[in-house]
Design goal:
By secondary structure, the chain is α/β, with parallel strands linked by helices. The chain contains eight helices and eight strands; from the N terminus they run βββαβαβαβααβαβαα.
């Protein structure tokens, strides 16, 4: 059973889909740009067998507020505020693409809040060739101003993001989508090398791993989450 909730975080309402046993270890899912919590529907039920799953709509997406003020750092602060509001201490965190950037920013700045980290086809924070995105026709389920703001940050990331990857001490799994992904796979491999002790695996189905190969995604993520129940060491 999936419960729909909204949580007020610093004046911004965040929508969340919760599932799984309420007393199970918490697992937070962060979607890619332009998606929302429903993006995880193919894998959330399986993950929720042994976890309390919290699938968020990040600001500017889905049923969460579209406040017009956007950055990856604000999304990071929203997630931290969400954890605080619900009284969640250390959590396991899964992030896809943009959601993975938000996830590793949280893991590097607040290492005590992330026990395990899964980064699904997430780009390395290095400058890349800029391209002007084209707004799709019709009504959108996300704020186009969010896309413009976040794309600028992903195209020209803060240099500190790369430097601080070495501060992550959560146990980390980096999943790559292989040659069919539009994300640089050399960059994904470098991301794994920059995080101490991270392991890397490839599921060669493209950028949308949890859509294209949900069973393989759940198997890889579940095995990683369950292989060692001891929390990561924190300073």
């Amino acid at each position: 059973m999936v419960d729909q909730h909204t949580v007020d975080v610093g004046g911004v309402r965040l929508a969340c889909r919760m599932s799984g046993p309420p007393d199970a270890p918490p697992l937070v899912l962060l979607h890619a740009m332009g998606e929302n919590a429903t993006d995880w529907e193919a894998v959330a039920p399986a993950l929720a067998r042994n976890r309390r799953v919290y699938a968020l709509d990040l600001r500017g997406h889905g049923r969460s507020d579209w406040p017009g003020d956007y950055s990856l750092e604000l999304m990071q602060a929203d997630v931290l505020g969400f954890l605080d509001t619900l009284g969640l201490g250390s959590v396991d965190l899964v992030g896809h693409s943009m959601g993975g950037v938000v996830a590793y920013l949280l893991a590097q700045d607040c290492p005590q809040r992330v026990s395990r980290l899964v980064l699904e086809d997430v780009p390395i924070p290095r400058p890349r060739e800029r391209a002007t995105p084209t707004r799709p026709d019709g009504a959108l389920t996300f704020d186009w101003e969010m896309v413009l703001a976040v794309r600028r940050q992903i195209d020209v990331p803060d240099p500190r993001w790369l430097q601080r990857l070495s501060r992550i001490n959560a146990k980390t799994l980096v999943l790559a989508g292989g040659p069919h992904s539009h994300v640089s796979q050399d960059g994904v491999a470098e991301l794994a090398r920059c995080i101490p002790g991270a392991r890397a695996a490839t599921i060669p189905v493209g950028h949308l791993i949890h859509h294209a190969a949900p069973e393989a995604f759940v198997e890889a993520v579940s095995a990683f989450l369950e292989e060692d129940s001891r929390p990561a060491r924190h300073p």
